[in-house]
Amino acid sequence: MTPPDDGLPKKGGSPSDKAPVDLTAGPAAQALASGRRVMRLEAAGIVAAAEALGADFAHAVDLLAGLSGRVIVTGMGKSGHVARKVAATLASTGTSAYFVHPGEASHGDLGMIAAGDVVLALSNSGETPELADILAYAKRFGHPVIAIVGRAESTLATAADAALVLPGTDEACPLGLAPTTSTTVSLALGDALAVALLERKGFSPDDFRDLHPGGKLGRRLLKVADIMHTGDELPLAGPDLPMSEALLVMTNRRFGCIGIVDGDGHLQGVITDGDLRRHMSGGLLDQPTGDVMTRGAKTIGPDAFATEAVQVMNAKSITNLFVVSEGRPVGILHIHDCLRAGVA
Questions:
Q1: Are 120 and 71 in contact (CB under 8 A)?
Q2: Largest CA distance in the chain
């Protein structure tokens, strides 16, 4: 039996092969209305939570900034899923944090909580039974407790040193049962704590790169100094060196160029394959490098991002960049180095 056509696009084929969908009526219109209602309700919840931030939020950031240990993030059910993400965000932004399952905590994992740790507990009701042992342990051994909680009068909120209470907005679930708005706002509060703490600590792009060496993000944060060639690999010569000898340096170093430096080691100019063609004559080999070099060559610093070097090379239609510090060449970078590093 062929199912009735519901007016929605089917899997397979290109978009141009599909009949236009009427978004003003039928299942498509209902789906759009549901999606927009959910997102607007959750957005309203985040806005309400932002407006409600006050002394407890500031105190929570103080507690996290002053800790000598780690952040123990915990929660049960959907709050537990949010807690795992909050722990990951804290860890990736320079604050040692990890998730402890409240059920496992009651069976030995309380031993993961050490001196100097702060507990960050998430619970919509604030009465989650599985959190009781962690909460009692924290109070017994003097671990500060930060709560992200749905009810200000709950056990968790009243026991916490700082309670971030969710606003009284409706769940996006039309039944009012599935955690939707509450989990979204909890996640936003966790992000707010992480970012406020990041700014308090002065966490830098360099710090971020150290914690994200893999993947596209890590490649974007590579510095020129991380992939440049240094030392004996540098093709350098003085301005009085005959071109016959300079060509040997260019050939041995295999960059297709040579940097010309003065007696103090400052870069004066560069000779490339293009310069050789422009000066091609019977007397080229007898000329000094200072007469052939191009002055004002484009350079870059070692602390620049490798992506910046790629932009410069693309913009100038060149394949090499000398890396200079205080006017002296400390490295050289080839576009192939960037390609191998996954930057270009």
A1: yes
A2: 93
